[in-house]
Every structure is written in structure tokens, then in C-alpha cells.
Design a protein that fits this description.
five-stranded mixed beta sheet; 30% strand
Length: 94
Amino acid sequence: MIVQLTREELVVTRGHHTRLQSPLAAISYVDVTSDDVMIVEIPCCDVTSWRNSGVLTQFSCAPKNSSYQTPGFHDYEVSQIGIDIVKELWSLPL
């Protein structure tokens, strides 16, 4: 199921900068259900992190002197904290 996010649904977390997360991005990997894994969230403007089929993704931070997006690659990346969990999810027997 593909879900288009709206600004009203976003979770605001505060740190050094204000970040907007999707409702599923605010959930820890332990609490993600099998129904949540079936959802592909499409982020709206200003969203910094969301889930794509259960995988936490975020906009990559680009240095000032680089282009916004590398040609041929998506402009988001898997969160470094979630790499080990993603590897476990991909290695599960079907």
C-alpha cells in the first residue's frame, strides 16, 4: 500500500534542528508490525525521514559544494543506525 503523507500526520522531533518524521519513522524497528512493512510512505515537503517497506530512510545531507542529488541515485539513504536491522530483514527465509 502506498501512502501519501500530509503535513498534519508528521511527527516533529526537536534536537539541533527541527525534523519532521512520518508516523512510521517515529516507531522503533522493534515495534514495526508486518502490516507496517507493507506500507510505502511518499514524503511531502520538509520530511526528513520515513519508512519504505519497513526500511527507515532519510534525506541525505549534502555538503554545500556538491550538487543536490547524485545523477542516477535516489536522494535518500538508509539510516546508518538501521543498517544491521535491514541486513537481518533481507536475510530472513521466505
